[in-house]
Amino acid sequence: MIAIIDYDAGNIKSVEKALKLLKQEVVITRDRDTILGADKVILPGVGAFGDAMGKLREYGLEEVIREVTGRGTPFLGICLGLQLLFERSDESPEVKGLGILKGEIVRIPESPGLKIPHMGWNSLDFPKKGRLFRNLSEEPYVYFVHSYYLRAEDESIVTATTEYSTHIHASVEQGNIFACQFHPEKSSDVGLQILQNFVAI
Q: What residue ranges define each of the domains in the chain, with the CATH number in brackets?
C-alpha cells in the first residue's frame, strides 16, 4: 500500500490517479499509523513553503515524516514535497524546512525571455542515473511548475538536472529518500515510468 500524505496541499488527487493507473493500492491520509504501516510514502504538493511547513506541524506530520524516512521506507517528495525535505527556502526565510536532506531552495533568477514561474516541459540530464530513471531514454521531457529551485549541498545525491535561467537540481536520491522538482504525475508516459520505478523499489 502507498500512503500519500494529506496536509491540505494541492495536487494530491492527480498523484493518486496516476498511481491507480499503475494498479496500485493508494490511501490519502494524515494518520500516523497508516503512514508508518505503508510500503511506500509520497509527499506531493503545490503551494507556499511556509504555509506547507505550518500545516505539517499543525497535523503532527513532521515527526511522522522523520520516523518513516528514518525507518528506511521508500519515500518520494514531489515538487513542493521535494522542497520541504531541505533546510530552508527563500520563499519563507523565517521558516525551517524538514532538514532531512542538506541544501536550500532559492528563487529562479530573472532572465530575458523566460517567465517565472517556470511552467512547462523541460528535458532532464542525468549526472548519475538514479533508480527513478531506469528504462528511460536520455534527455526525457517532464513537466515543471515552480518559481523556486533546489541547490543541494551534496551534489552526489543529484540524479537529474535541467536548465531554466540557471542550473536546477531537478531530482535527488539518498538511500530510501527520492524527490523530484517536476511532476511525474503530469509528465505523460515518462512520468508514469518514473512512478512505476518508485513502486518497484
A: 2-200 (3.40.50.880)
